[in-house]
Amino acid sequence: MYTCSPVKLTLAENEPNKKTSFTYTPPEDIIIVKALNKAKFPVYLGYSNSREEYYAIKVFPYDSVSESACFLNEIAFSGLEHRNIVSILGYETDRQAIFNDKHTHISYTIMELAPHGDFFDFVSSKKVVFDEKLARTFFHQLIDGISYLHSKGIYH
After folding, report:
1. What is the pLDDT of residues 100-129, one digit of tens each?
2. What are the b/e assignments for 126-149, b being 16+ CB within 10 Å?
């Protein structure tokens, strides 16, 4: 269980006529629990009390006056559905927020939460003892996910 602690992101009330796209009905009560990383585009842990689910929320500060090119690239993947690829459940293109102690505009994605981090972090954590069978399993899962991306014209 995660504990709530203050983070440097506060979302303002949603404004009418703003572009929002969700592939499912998002819970209105997602709260930011904590920062998961401090990257250029930070990821926060979000929680919905009504659904009792955790989410990963990736934030993209605006480039001057418009959406980040990286955000626009990221949402191009929002229709992907595969068991070995984290799904983007929804996104919002323009939200006023306090980000790094400044009032600004952000875009964000709401994604499935990978509770153990990304594959690289998991493998390098040394919390798992790898034998040949486990290595083969991971290899097959990676190939399966990459094959799916290739079938959709995405090369990573």
Report:
1. 788 888 899 999 999 888 888 888 887 778
2. eeeeeeeeeeeebeeeeeebeebb
